[in-house]
Each structure stands twice: as C-alpha cells, then as structure tokens.
Design a protein that fits this description.
By secondary structure, the protein is mainly beta. The protein has a single domain, classed as Trefoil (Trefoil (Acidic Fibroblast Growth Factor, subunit A)). The chain contains one helix and 14 strands; from the N terminus they run H-E-E-E-E-E-E-E-E-E-E-E-E-E-E. The strands form five sheets. A four-stranded antiparallel beta sheet has the order 7-6-2-14, with no helix packed on it. Strands 1-10-11 form a three-stranded antiparallel beta sheet. A three-stranded antiparallel beta sheet has the order 4-9-8, with no helix packed on it. A hairpin with a 5-residue loop joins strand 10 (109-113) and strand 11 (119-123). Mean pLDDT is 85; it is low at 6-20.
C-alpha cells in the first residue's frame, strides 16, 4: 500500500530531473559566441595551444567559436586558431578550461539544454561543466548558476 503512494512521487521527481538536463536539440554547425547567461559576457581567449580561456567582452576577436556535432558530442573550436575547447593540461584544482590541440584530450562537450534555451556545456564522460565568470573559465561539478550559457549565432 505504501509503495503505491510512493511510486507516483518518484516518477514525478525523475521526470523533473530529466527535463532539466535534456540533450540540446541539434545545433547547426557554424560560428557562435558562447554567452554566459548571468553576466552577458562571452567566452573568449587567444586560442593558442594550452591557452586558458575566460569570460570577457563579446566584441573581442577571441569570442568566436565554431561548433560541430561529432559522435562523442560537440566539438568547440576557436575561430581564429582552430584549437579545441578542452580541460587545461595544468594540474590544479579546480580544473581550468583552455584551448588545446583537438586530438589532445576529449575535446567533446555535451550540450544540456533547458526549455528556455539556456544550456550547460558538460565535458563528455565527466560530471564537470564549463563555469564562468570566475578567475578564468573553470570546470566545476554541474549545477552552478554560473554554468548557464546560450549560443549567439554569428
């Protein structure tokens, strides 16, 4: 009898969790800015190998990224250099986000989109999401408000 009362509540809770982290609908390949939803600043960086990224003005040259779908997730390439957005090779915690050679680590991101279009970028095969605006972009456990982004098509 108790089980019958609990099952509907469990089903409702599970569906709420799934709706918050559904995969993004297909993103067309092309040039985008990654805009932090809480600050309006864009993800930017110089784009060289092992270069840390940060949030900054959206009119900076380094604020353009190419996205394309791959079998492992979305590849996010710096528009100026072609280097991929990835976990930095720096061995510090929390991990930093940098541009790295595209075959270096994982170089794939899962785009987890809400109904309002805001999304989180989760590094594939991890529970860490792209986090800004801090002292540079970080990878932190998913769930922080600073991990909310939207794509601006260029």
């Amino acid at each position: 009898m108790r089980l019958r009362a609990v099952l509907p509540a469990l089903a409702l809770a599970a569906s709420a969790v799934l709706s918050m982290s559904s995969p993004a609908s297909a993103v067309e390949p092309g040039a985008y800015q990654l805009v932090n939803a809480s600050t309006g600043q864009c993800l930017t960086g110089e784009g060289g190998a092992h270069q840390l990224v940060r949030t900054g003005a959206c009119d900076e040259r380094g604020a353009r990224w190419f996205l394309r779908d791959t079998p492992y997730g979305y590849e996010v390439r710096h528009a100026e250099t072609g280097a991929c957005l990835d976990q930095s090779i720096l061995r510090i915690f929390p991990p930093r986000v940098a541009t790295e050679p595209c075959d270096f680590h994982q170089s794939a991101w899962q785009l987890e989109q809400r109904d309002d279009g805001v999304m989180r970028l989760r590094l594939d095969r991890t529970d860490y999401c792209l986090t800004g605006p801090r002292d540079g972009a970080l990878l932190l456990p998913c769930g922080d408000r600073d991990q909310e982004w939207f794509l601006r098509r260029l």
